[in-house]
Specification:
The protein is of the alpha+beta class. The chain has 4 helices and 7 strands, in the order ααααβββββββ.
């Protein structure tokens, strides 16, 4: 069987709902509460999950522990992120990571401003120690650029990078 991460999400969701249902004295009310839960509100969802005692720790604690294990983007060699005066003649954007990353997992995407702000990328290369990733680019004058460095980047243990917007 091929493992699908989406299946894991459904599985965990089912068991959290099942735990809530089984802990409830009024089963009809439990079903009603599950149907009417504000699934678009992360604070409400976190409180709901914590209330089921499904996990051994609170969601906030688990996220904090997870964050400590995740690699981070710690800088760009050629300019300061958010800078308004990057020379359009810049030919490389070199990204430094907090630790070596797997060269088999990379991912860039458009930033919030969309495709029009994504630079023309000619090549992508890794440093020998896998802590630097360089994009060969062509930039135009008076253009705003954005590159979303995605959480598809992973360290050797498989922990995903905290996403980072280069702007």
């Amino acid at each position: 069987n091929e493992f699908d991460v989406r299946d894991l999400g459904y599985y965990i969701g089912y068991y959290i709902a099942d735990s809530f249902y089984n802990q409830s004295a009024n089963k009809s009310q439990a079903i009603n509460d599950l149907i009417q839960l504000d699934y678009g509100n992360p604070t409400v969802i976190d409180a709901f999950i914590d209330g089921t005692n499904f996990f051994s720790k609170s969601i906030e604690t688990l996220r904090a522990e997870d964050s400590l294990k995740r690699p981070k983007l710690i800088g760009i060699q050629q300019f300061e992120n958010g800078s308004n005066d990057v020379n359009y003649k810049t030919k490389k954007i070199t990204i430094r990571f907090s630790e070596p990353l797997s060269q088999n997992h990379t991912g860039v995407d458009y930033g919030p401003l969309g495709e029009i702000t994504f630079p023309k990328v000619l090549a992508r290369t890794w440093s020998e120690d896998s802590t630097l990733w360089t994009l060969d680019v062509e930039l135009e004058p008076e253009m705003k650029y954005q590159i979303m460095i995605s959480n598809n980047f992973r360290n050797e243990l498989g922990f995903p990078l905290q996403p980072y917007l280069i702007d």
